[in-house]
Design brief:
By secondary structure, this protein is α/β, with parallel strands linked by helices. It contains nine helices and twelve strands.
Length: about 230
């Protein structure tokens, strides 16, 4: 990651988002500008609340490293529901969203994106005894549980438009990732689209009886660009 490029981006973006003007710059030069970074506190390992109740994770560490080089700003983190992160950016309540964000054309119309901060590998999670799903094309007619607005939900909605005769059965939910994966494990739902790093961590930490179905590059591209951003 090119931090120098980042610093310049954040300075310009923050000034724009907070509506600062040059007339006030002299009087405010001795004060640190407040920057609020919003996150939902999930999913791990990108943003999470540890056993001590502290906010941590890869995205959080990246933000802290960036602003450690920008002493004119003082940052504070606010934990909110995932849909409220973007809503807060819209209202200028927040200046930065840190939530393992993928990029898509609709979001690009409204938001500034950082340089990529992480490269994802999208996979399918299925129960270990499920032998019916071995690729993206096996998802027709299968069921899944997704959070509205996630890149996975958008990808499946687009796929259903192209496969209206036998679409994926989408159930929208605001449930945390662990119960979502447990629902796949129990057979309540057939699969979950997810990042491989997250899935591997959850399988290891929670001893989930799930297996990982890797995707071709073509099928990964159905979901989103493989990179995540602030």
């Amino acid at each position: 990651m090119n931090l120098n490029k980042w610093y310049g981006f954040l300075v310009l973006a923050t000034l724009f988002l907070t509506g600062c003007d040059n007339q006030n710059s002299n009087t405010e030069s001795s004060k640190k500008q407040q920057i609020i970074i919003a996150t939902s506190g999930a999913p791990s390992p990108f943003t999470t609340i540890n056993d001590e109740g502290d906010l941590t994770g890869y995205d959080i560490d990246v933000v802290k490293a960036i602003f450690a080089k920008l002493p004119q700003y003082e940052i504070n983190f606010e934990i909110t529901e995932f849909p409220s992160v973007l809503a807060g950016l819209d209202s200028q309540r927040y200046q930065v969203g840190a939530n393992n964000y993928a990029i898509n054309e609709k979001r690009k119309e409204k938001y500034f994106y950082s340089d990529p901060i992480f490269k994802n590998q999208y996979v399918i999670a299925v129960a270990k005894n499920n032998n019916n799903i071995n690729s993206f094309h096996d998802l027709n007619g299968m069921s899944t549980e997704v959070t509205p607005g996630l890149n996975y939900a958008t990808a499946l909605e687009t796929y259903n438009q192209q496969n209206a005769n036998n679409p994926v059965k989408i159930v929208y939910s605001e449930a945390d990732l662990l119960p979502v994966l447990q629902h796949v494990e129990s057979g309540q739902y057939d699969f979950q689209l997810i990042d491989k790093v997250m899935l591997s961590q959850f399988i290891s930490e929670h001893h989930l009886n799930l297996k990982i179905i890797e995707l071709s590059k073509e099928d990964e591209d159905r979901i989103a660009s493989p990179f995540s951003y602030l």
